[in-house]
Request: fold
Amino acid sequence: MICFTWTPRLWIFTVLFLTSLEVSSDGPGQQSEGIESAIQFLLNHVADSGLIFIRNSKRHDAADAAEHMNSKYEYFRDKIKTPEDFIRRCASKSLLSGEPYLVVLENGEEIRTDAWLLRALTVYRRGLAANPA
Reply:
């Protein structure tokens, strides 16, 4: 029997891997989700969360965090082809320090913002699949 510990890095890798499987199973129609709609959902998810976000060891409210991510989105817009690109480029880490962005959950736990948003994106996509337009 193989034993291992679920480190944050392993957990994030697993989420990213499973998300990529979900995306690839959609095939060429993945664009139908509407990249802009998905990114707007993610930005609203941040802004409406009421949570605290940590960037470069400083705490920011949800509105400020969403505004910062949106600024990065405007800068990287031409390089962003998927919602995962948005999360990777705009919501995962500081370009200046390389430090990961964190979100403080209601229970006080700090987790990486990219992992938190990947979970939200999965829920968003399940909602689209359950209620196709």
Remarks:
- Strands lie at 52-55, 58-61, 102-104, 110-112.
- The chain has five helices and four strands.
